[in-house]
Amino acid sequence: MQNEIGKLIEQVRLHDHHDPHHGEFFLSDVILGGQDGLVNVLGVILGVAAATADSRIVIAAGLAATFAESISMGAVAYTSKLAEHDLYHSEREREHRHIHFAPDVEIEEIREIYRKKGFDGETLDKIVEVITSNPDVWVNVMMSEEFQLTPPEKSKAFRSALLVGLSALIGSLIPLAPFFFLNVSISIWFAVVIAALTLFIVGAYKARVTVGKPFRSGMEMAVIGTVSALAGYVVGLLFKAPTVP
Known about the structure:
Elements: H1 2-13, H2 27-51, H3 55-101, H4 103-116, H5 121-132, H6 135-145, H7 157-176, H8 184-209, H9 214-238
């Protein structure tokens, strides 16, 4: 029992250390940018392609949407990371004030957190004593356990923005590629098929490296993305340009 208490105390002391793998795990940024870019630009080019048979117009609209989408997604990712950073530190400062002005209340909250984890008696008392003996550890534990917040790194905001923006750019170009080589009517089908396959692969890969069933995850992403993009095609049909005899 003593060894278990010692290990737990050591984990508590290291509670504010970062997971060495967490900071380098950018799968969510890649999926966010790539999927958003692909689906949005596919919707745009399908809508334009349904309204006109001129591939140059489709390509121009697609490229305009591609660059606008990538820049916008990168900017959103950057500002979102900064907002997360500001929120975390605002809550952290508030929690510091709480343990300063109402320590008894905060100590009881720590006790209740670890009581729910199954600790009691002397073990629980020792855990509470170790945590509350260090204000920084105390606040870090409260942030993680009570608010489910982890410290975001402001320095990685630019890297996240760059990754999201590049992913959006690449994802956007995937459905647009056929229109550079084929006529509009054939390119529409190629764009939908290529986009669906790409979304399926991304969804399956996401489930494989995280949790879930690869086939189901791939199908969900492919169906949702394709149906969303087809809304653009329907709108394009409503404004289809008349054929010049």
